[in-house]
Design goal:
The protein has one domain (2-144). By secondary structure, it is an all-alpha fold. The protein has helices at residues 2-22, 32-40, 51-71, 81-101, 116-144.
Amino acid sequence: MYIAIVVACVLFAVSLLHFLWASGSPWPCTDQQSLLRTVVGHPDLNRFPSPLLTVLAAMAIGIAGLIALWAGGILLLPLPGWIRTAGVIILICIFLLRGLSTYTPKRIWTAPIEPFATLDRRYFAPLCIVLGCGFIWLLIADLAM
């Protein structure tokens, strides 16, 4: 299933970025402070999350990619189907809530700093919404089988 491959590839790429950041690289920025403003954007943070926390995020994102492949029938795991279905439903909720939360009124959420705020509205949140929709597609296909 092509949707599973696309979703997994996007998630694996994002996971690799997190591993790169955990290693101390500020790519695609020039330094840690600009990376912090670009990809975290929280006004109360003055340093990037710890390498351990960043590695855990990278692993969670990578696992989401594996779940996409599992739901698409590309990866076979010796686990009950209900675990796959539950994982997909959880990922739908995570990605859609993350994506849609960007477009809630500012009084509910802490206003992010630039350039994160603009990048989030234009790219990060829409990507999360698209990934959430991809997982919806995978859930529907999985339940139809």
